[in-house]
Amino acid sequence: xxxxxxxxxxxxxxxxxxxxxxxxxxxxxxxxxxxxxxxxxxxxxxxxxxxxxxxxxxxxxxxxxxxxxxxxxxxxxxxxxxxxxxxxxxxxxxxxxxxxxxxxxxxxxxxxxxxxxxxxxxxxxxxx
Length: 128
Prior knowledge:
The protein has 128 residues and is mainly beta. It contains 1 helix and 11 strands. The chain is globular, with a radius of gyration of 14 Å.
């Protein structure tokens, strides 16, 4: 079992920055990748980004590419999401997720059902 706990959400003005963290505990050695998804009110949950726990390779959705950066601290079993140049449309509940199986392409890492464990979510609100 793997437990994930997000932190760092909050309210920020458009153009501002926030940093989310996701701390993993339990069988962390079984994790292949850590990802972030988000769900805005009235919308389906969507892929944001993911990072390989071993090699550090990353994938980003087009909507956040160039503005968001995912990183990892293997020693602390923590993934971070640095969000810059935030826009009102980034407002959502952000979920951290752990993927146990290896994924070799964007289509695989972006598929919600492939992830095995999820955090409880943290609210990010961007005001205009």
